[in-house]
Amino acid sequence: MAGFGAKVLRIWVTKIDAGCQKGSNIPNAVPDFEAQIGTYNDDTLAALDKVLAKMVAKGMKAIISPHDGNALNPDDPRCDAYCNAYHSGDAYYQSTDAKSQIDARYAAILNYVSPSSGTKWSQWSDAILAFDIENEPMINAQDIAKNNDPPDWLCGRAGNMAKLTDGSGVLMATGVIAGDESNGANLMQKALECDAIDIISIHGYVSTANFWTSTIPGWLSTVEQHNKLLMVEEFGYCDDASLCGSVYQDNFDKQAAAITAQKIPYTYWEMVEGPDDSQAKSDCWTNCCTGYDGFDLGIHNGSSKGDPKSAIAAANQQTAAQSWPISG
Predict the structure, then answer these.
(1) What do you get for the CA distance between the two ends of the chain, in Å?
(2) Contact 154, 133 (CB under 8 A)
(3) What order of strands is seen across the sheet that includes strand 171-173?
(4) Residue 18 burial (10 A CB sphere; 0-12, 13-18, 19+)
(5) Which among 10, 15, 154, 171 is least buried, having the fewest CB atoms inside 10 angstroms?
(6) What is the average pLDDT value for the chain, to the nearest integer?
(7) Model confidence at 328, in pLDDT bands (50, 70, 90)?
């Protein structure tokens, strides 16, 4: 990715099983950071720190999600310790105890001292562009999101995290409130008004490039009125309805070009090292082609879904609409 000119990657504080996943063979499992609430396994952070060190050496930065809102659904295989304790997103976001517990988790992550740099993650701006407050907060508590976060969960967590990053240049991102933009809460008013939040993140799984052309200008105007940055943190293209429910009209290239034309940065869900699902149908060169969700995009051997190298080069030639702390 560095060779393509990519500047930012997203990484999550989450467990990963060894074995085949989306065209790649993962040789070593990464353990759950918090299998029991309040008990932390720094082996998870040590594994991620090695990735961060490699990124710094290539001039790249990370956006780190310290928890996944999708893991709060008891019916989801990602159901974690908080899911098991509170049994629903609604209960988790409204609980005073849960707020204290997740704040403690976040403090343990942000105060982790990097073995590779000797710097706390909260202060390591050479490696970390931003922390998400959570990946897709309130995706499992839609009513709370639609009612403008009555428990003040978002700004409360962001404020506590910002105390740890204070003065470092590491930013705070929403992580995309309530999931996909179609849920109507990515630009929640309380998030716009929260001083501790720097980045309003968007997730959009849409069929046409015109969506981005017609929608981003309004979003950008709104966030700039509140002195925030705007980025598309996830978008996707799928050409197999059996995996994602429908075939999208415009491929990765067209959608990426439309976002770039609006001078807004993006990260894609999800570029993969091995063959993507389309490539795997004719050539599974890794012999490890399982676990696809339909949105994967192979970065090698010419995927029919799009050309990430050319898209990144085009983005790097564009002047951003806003000022970002990223070199190059």
Answers:
(1) 15
(2) yes
(3) 8-12, 61-65, 128-132, 171-173, 199-204, 229-235
(4) exposed
(5) 15
(6) 97
(7) low
Contact 150, 140 (CB under 8 A): no
Q: Which residue has the tokens 């894609």?
A: 268
CA distances from 35 to 15, 49, 135, 233, 243 (A): 10, 20, 18, 27, 30
Beta bridge mates, 232? 202, 266
Tell me the CA distances in angstroms from 66 to 16, 175, 205, one per residue in order.
14, 10, 23
For residue 327, pLDDT over 90 is answered with no
Q: Nearest-CA neighbor of 132 among 217, 220, 191?
A: 191
Q: Can you tell me the distance from the alpha carbon of 249 to that of 234, in angstroms, rounded to the nearest whole number?
A: 17
Asked if 148 and 91 touch (Cβ cutoff 8 Å), the reply is no
Rounded Cα distance, 24 and 17, in Å = 12
Predicted TM-score (pTM) of this structure: 0.97
- Quick one: how far is CA 194 from the chain centroid? 20
Q: Where is 272: in which H helix or E strand?
A: strand 271-272
Q: Are 271 and 9 in contact (CB under 8 A)?
A: no
Q: pLDDT value at position 326?
A: 84
Q: Kind of pairing, strands 297-298 and 271-272?
A: parallel
Give which of 245, 232, 249 is closest to 311, Cα–Cα. 232
Measure the CA–CA gap between 298 and 284, rounded to whole angstroms.
11
Which helix (H) or strand (E) element contains residue 10? strand 8-12
HEC profile of 191-205: HHHCCCCCEEEEEEC
Residue 43: which residues within 8 A CB-CB, separation 6 or more?
30, 31
- Helix pair 308-317, 252-261: axis angle to 10 deg: 10
Q: How many CA atoms lie within 13 A of 85 on its CB side?
A: 16
